[in-house]
Amino acid sequence: MIVQKGSFLCAEPTVELQIAFRKKLGAGLFGGEGFILQDISGTGNVFLEVDGDQIVKELKPGEVIKVDTGNVVAFEKTVNYEIERVKGVKNILFGGEGLFLTKLTGPGKIILQTQNFNDFASRIISLMPKSGNN
């Protein structure tokens, strides 16, 4: 499987972990999650960090799903992975999802998470009292 950086927690010694780079550097720089992915292979158990609930979906050949990049946890190597820019000024300004989405095209299994930790942390920080406002 290919795993988003930061999702890998641990694995049995029979599992190999390598760095997998995205094909397009621009997608990595502007896609919101960096351009490094982790390639997990071998046999054995792997533990991944999933924020919120886990959603596992099996994409059929040619089936496409678009998701916020922070909600992608992992996908099988048969799944095509692209970063796509959100179209339309209204979507960019008012959509709340940022400028980029991840486009996953089947076949293969994908694992998504319902909570993007970075978005969650930003919301918490915005509610914290600011120093000097006492």
Walkthrough of the structure:
This protein has 134 residues and is an alpha+beta fold. The protein has a single domain, classed as Double-stranded beta-helix (4-Layer Sandwich), CATH 3.60.160. The protein is 17% helix and 43% strand. The chain has helices at 25-30, 89-94, 117-127, and strands spanning 2-4, 8-11, 15-21, 36-42, 46-48, 54-59, 64-68, 72-75, 80-85, 100-105, 108-113. The strands form three sheets. The chain has a six-stranded antiparallel beta sheet, with no helix packed on it. A three-stranded antiparallel beta sheet has the order 7-10-9. The radius of gyration is 17 Å and the shape is globular. Mean pLDDT is 81; it is low at 25-34.
Which helices and strands occur, and which strands form pairs?
Blueprint lengths: L1 E3 L3 E4 L3 E7 L3 H6 L5 E7 L3 E3 L5 E6 L4 E5 L3 E4 L4 E6 L3 H6 L5 E6 L2 E6 L3 H11 L7
Antiparallel strand pairs: 1-4, 1-8, 2-5, 3-4, 6-11, 7-10, 8-11, 9-10
Briefly characterize the structure:
By secondary structure, the protein is of the alpha+beta class. It is built from three helices and eleven strands; from the N terminus they run E-E-E-H-E-E-E-E-E-E-H-E-E-H.
Please write the CATH class name: Alpha Beta
For the secondary structure, the number of strands is: 11
The secondary structure category is: alpha+beta
Calculate the terminal CA-CA distance, rounded to whole Å: 50 Å
Order of helices and strands: EEEHEEEEEEHEEH
Rg, Å, rounded: 17 Å
In CATH, the homologous superfamily goes by the name: Mitochondrial biogenesis AIM24
Mean pLDDT: 81
The fraction of residues assigned to DSSP E strands is 35-45%
CATH architecture descriptor name? 4-Layer Sandwich
Strand order of the largest sheet: 3-4-1-8-11-6
Based on Cα principal axes, name the global outline.
globular
